[in-house]
Amino acid sequence: MSSDRSSSEPTVGVSVAIGELNLHAGRTVRLHGWVRNLRSSGKILFVILRDGTGEVQVVVARDEVDSDSWETAQALTYECSVMVDGLVREEARAPSGYEVTGRRLRLVGPSPDFPIQPKEHGTDFLLQNRHLWLRSRRQIAIMRVRDEVVRAIRDFFHERGYILVDTPILTGAIGESAGTLFETEYFDLGPAYLAQTGQLYLEAAAAALGKVYCFGPTFRAEKSKTRRHLAEFWMVEPEVAWLDSEGNMALQEEFVCFIVDRVLENRRGELAVLERDIERLEAVRPPFDRISYTEAVEELRRRGSEIEWGADLGAEEETLIAEGRSAPVFIYDYPREAKAFYMKESPEDPRTVKCDDLIAPEGYGEIIGGSQREDDYDRLLTRIREEGLPEEAYDWYLDLRRYGTFPHSGFGLGLERTVAWICGVPHLREAIAFPRLMTRLKP
Amino acid sequence: MSSDRSSSEPTVGVSVAIGELNLHAGRTVRLHGWVRNLRSSGKILFVILRDGTGEVQVVVARDEVDSDSWETAQALTYECSVMVDGLVREEARAPSGYEVTGRRLRLVGPSPDFPIQPKEHGTDFLLQNRHLWLRSRRQIAIMRVRDEVVRAIRDFFHERGYILVDTPILTGAIGESAGTLFETEYFDLGPAYLAQTGQLYLEAAAAALGKVYCFGPTFRAEKSKTRRHLAEFWMVEPEVAWLDSEGNMALQEEFVCFIVDRVLENRRGELAVLERDIERLEAVRPPFDRISYTEAVEELRRRGSEIEWGADLGAEEETLIAEGRSAPVFIYDYPREAKAFYMKESPEDPRTVKCDDLIAPEGYGEIIGGSQREDDYDRLLTRIREEGLPEEAYDWYLDLRRYGTFPHSGFGLGLERTVAWICGVPHLREAIAFPRLMTRLKP
Q: Contact A205/B139, CB-based, under 8 Å?
């Protein structure tokens, strides 16, 4: 306990975290944590204790502890919580380099029949017990990688002078395709929709602050059961005034390399727990290949695909293009019909728009979608009408082209897809603490 | 433009941001930005140009620019966007220390009759034009303070080893009082509710990772029109294993001081724009006063209030308690009935729970609510039943007391209330880019 006023136990050593044991070698300390594993050899019990900051083996010998402690030790089970007073010893054979000789042991919370045992469990069972599954070594490693990815993302933009602008979840205007929106009654104003993107709002903010980004949850009520979809996922979206599509791709390249580098720098141990092939991540180096949509279609057809120019690229085509490439690859300038209304018409070929998708290697698919935005009032209005979108909902968005319009670009990176790729986990559901799937809303 | 491939203008100087002009004194540069203000003296036009990173005066003299540029300059209006080539000069009288002598000027986007002019506008009008209002000096300053507050919050927890765990927005189980929840249909699973807190999920994560926090949007469908309520607002919530209520208050104190210090360190200019009394912020120093609920009631009654022991404290009572205190003040150990079901029963007085509210000075009210959580299975179940909550929705939450229960505490800090207080703005609607009010969902 960080404060001892309400504790009834006398303090025999300072309370420390397992991750800091290296600072306390040779001293008696107090640990609080959960029992990860147990092994007994009659007179000695080996307890693997974890506390969120790390794991350590506590050696409890019958001859070296009081009888209460020994009795407690005999009754320990997976995931019960305990308090341990013990001596920190350097131990070269231990994964952390330290071991603790137990002096005193107290049970805090029992854990009879912890549902998740060291054996194989079905996915449904694990998801149903997600609140307990999170305690497993692998899930902890993924959560720590996710934390580092988020930190890297925020550092990247902060260091480059971007201002965070949180965009609303409850929206009247809608960014992308309707029909996959969650809807809720908003007081007396009728329905509100849960945002699929913050981009339109960010464009307004970019005219005020220059370089901005948002980073929050987004929602898709898509009836999809694939391993690459979640109903609720986090997306980071930068928006940059005076940046064109070329510069946008350069920004994305720098950004993705920065994230991967930071995980390699700070989360080696977690990647080892996940048995991630580090070399695959070390191969993520600039420059990333850039191929136009038109070139991609030609390449796909050469390789046997029957795709026609004009059709969007699906997961299958993306995987094919990424094959044989060790770094992510850009596909740029898609046909207008395949993309959202707000993308800028290409001056070189008005059938296409100035956009890009960034495809991760190893079959992880699209992790970024970006574009230069249409900054011409008339062309944007035409596109809104062509798409049959409710014009009045976009009047404020059109204002941005009415008052001091400016070339600008941005992109969205899906957090869970990026985390899944970096961790090498096949399904997005493990890349977020409490996944929301079509068939799962609990816990 | 960060890449010149699509630019039709020849480059005469490197493109730079106004905030970096100090690095380019004596050189010719290219600026992109919006016209904040204009002043003419016949043959010379003084243009205040802004680009999100700063503002600078551009001096355009008829005799020193080509005729196209002069003609363009004559037609400039508020908030039109322009490209300027010019010479950077040190100028002691300029707020930024620099001025630019214009050489060439091009209009990028006109801005006829920009709706927000340098005069008083009504609040409704400004909110309706929030996408344009954001460009004002004052709103930019608030957004930059908000950015710094968020950065400080994330740094604080990161530096102390907390792991970010993003908790779900779409939830089955509910944290606090029902009746103020936004609801949406969730596929075939019935209604989902927009989360009012991530706390319950964080408690599960704390058992896995020790020290965790979430930071995301939260929702209240409260029919309230006060200046201290938003339907959608951001909240940061740490949750700490093995921390008791005393330690929780110490953490909050350190946290709030850290945030205020960081704004004072990095956003002096913005606070000056906002005409914030810096001394009021500098007075936010530990230790904060801590008074129990019971003492608060006594103090209030001495000062004429008719409040009875047992009733919750409202905004009026909070303001009264904060009066005459220059730093925030803790009120702790409220009556059980006034608080949420998950708070730990006080061992010293079972009529109360181990919790605290932190009240900001200057009438800004509660910015933090925190508590030690009930870690006893039976007592928690009793409370869930007493409150008439759907027991089956909380089975997973009860599991945390079934398997290795542990003392733990946490709190929630409202971002907009904190930003409003630090900026000295009376209404929360200015503390977020696109406020969601009972009567406003757009833009």
A: no
- The pLDDT tens digits of the residues spanning B275-322 come to 999 999 999 999 999 999 999 999 999 999 999 999 999 999 999 999
Which residues in A lie closer than 8 A to residue B441 (C-beta atoms)? 170-172, 186, 189, 192
Q: Domains in chain B: how many in total?
A: 2
Whether residues A141 and A52 fall in one domain: no
Of A154, A246, A406, the CB nearest to B5: A246
Q: Is the peptide bond before B10 cis (omega within 30 degrees of 0)?
A: no
| SS3 (DSSP) at A204 | helix
Instruction: Assess: ipTM above 0.90.
Output: yes
DSSP codes joined into one string, B241-276 = ET--HHHHHHHHHHHHHHHHHHHHHH-HHHHHHTT-
Residues A133 and A218 in one domain: yes
Question: Are B38 and B144 found together in one domain?
Answer: no
Q: A105 and A132: one domain?
A: no
Same domain, B84 and B220: no
- In sign, the C-alpha dihedral spanning A142, A146, A149, A155 is negative
- Cβ contact, residue pair B245, A6, below 8 Å: yes
* B239 DSSP β-pair partners: B212, B410
| Residue A214: inside a domain | yes
- Cβ of B211 within 8 Å of Cβ of A184? The answer is no
Integer Cα distance of A58 and A48 in angstroms: 6
Query: Which residues in chain A are contacts of B35 at CB distance < 8 A?
Result: 404
Which residue range forms the structural domain that includes residue A94?
14-109
Q: Is residue A3 part of a domain?
A: no
The arrangement of strands across the sheet holding B329-332 comes to B163-164, B211-219, B232-241, B408-414, B365-372, B355-360, B329-332, B289-292
Nearest CA in chain A to B112: A403
Instruction: Mark yes or no for CB contact A217/B166 under 8 Å.
Output: yes
Threshold 0.90, pTM exceeds: yes
- Say which residues have a Cβ less than 8 Å from residue A31's Cβ, sequence separation at least 6: A15, A16, A18, A49, A51, A56, A58, A83, A84, A85, A86, A100
Closest chain A C-alpha to B302 CA, distance in angstroms: 30
Instruction: Return the closest-CA partner of residue A299 out of A319, A280, A327, A326.
Output: A319
pLDDT of residue B8: 43
Evaluated on CA atoms B163, B168, B172, B177, the torsion sign reads positive
Count of other CB atoms within 10 angstroms of residue A53: 18
8 Å CB contact between B221 and B181:
yes
Lowest-confidence range among A9-23, A144-158, A389-403, B232-246? A9-23
Note whether A187 contacts B158, CB cutoff 8 Å. Answer: no
**Same domain (yes/no): B360, B425:** yes
Cβ-nearest to B436 among A168, A204, A240: A168
Question: Which residue type does B25 have?
Answer: A
- Do both B211 and B320 map to the same domain? yes
In this structure, the answer to whether residues A239 and A326 fall within a common structural domain is yes
Burial (CB count within 10 angstroms: exposed 0-12, middle 13-18, buried 19+), residue A123:
exposed
Return the residue of B nearest to A210 by Cα: B52
CATH number at residue A271: 3.30.930.10
Instruction: Tell me which chain A residues have a C-beta less than 8 angstroms from the C-beta of B109.
Output: 375, 401, 403-406
Tell me, yes or no, whether A154 lies in a domain.
yes
Using the structure block, give the residue that is written with the tokens 């229960």: B405
Indicate which CATH number applies to the domain containing B44: 2.40.50.140
Contact at CB, B244 and A5, closer than 8 angstroms:
yes
| Nearest-Cα residue of chain B relative to residue A166 | B433
pLDDT digits (tens, 9 = 90+) for B115-153: 998 889 999 999 999 999 999 999 999 999 999 999 999
Among candidates A208, A197, A213, which has minimal Cα distance to A162?
A213
d(CA A384, CA A374): 11
Flag whether B117 is in a domain. Answer: no
